[in-house]
Amino acid sequence: MKTFIIATIILLFGCNLFAQENIVIGGYQDQEIKTIFKKEKRDGFYGAFSAGYSPIDHKDGLTFGARGCWIMDHFFSFGVGGTGFINELDEIGLGFYSGSSNNVTSLAGGYGGVILEPILLPLKPVHLSFPILIGAGAAGAFKNYDYFSTYYVDDFFWVVEPQAELEINFTRWLRFAVYAGYRYTSELNISDISKDALRGYSVGATIKMGKF
User: Fold this and answer.
1) DSSP letter string, 173-193
2) Cα 182–chain centre separation
3) How far apart are the first and last CA of the chain?
4) In the chain, N or C terminus with fewer CB closer than 10 Å?
5) Residue 112's closest CA among 85, 67, 157, 82?
């Protein structure tokens, strides 16, 4: 009889514990089982536009880029993107005829590919992200900006470009970032252009808009 009473007390005590909404163990409130793969993820997306500076063939150059990415649970994004470039800024004349000679060889082109982007502390107002572009591109040389639209492709190349971005969350749908990166490409085979013309650092700014 004593054994039966003790067993009944233990059973009632155990049921009372399981009936509680939260269980407190060691001073901590365990409300949810932590798992590696979460069933409910908060995904998002964004589109971005960037502008920057980069030395191209040992001359000052401009870069313009765009990308679209899907964000997985705040901490990682992937998508596609591309960048256009042009060098010899002194010869551009800020969009007007510069009166320069035709003896200077300039380089222009673009590249694009897949983007993988780990994001560090994305919920903080200021945080870091590390996008890397892997893809291919084309470039061409010309000697007169007045006929820039008629230049043709002289060579193709593959490219790997890792970057580090310092991001600021202005709103839930708008972010601003400054970036620095390094562009590594295969060698170019273009007359009057160095083989490593596109290899080098780049710095600039990016605006991101989307659902973060």
Assistant:
1) SEEEEEEEEEEEEPPP--TTS
2) 13
3) 64
4) N
5) 82
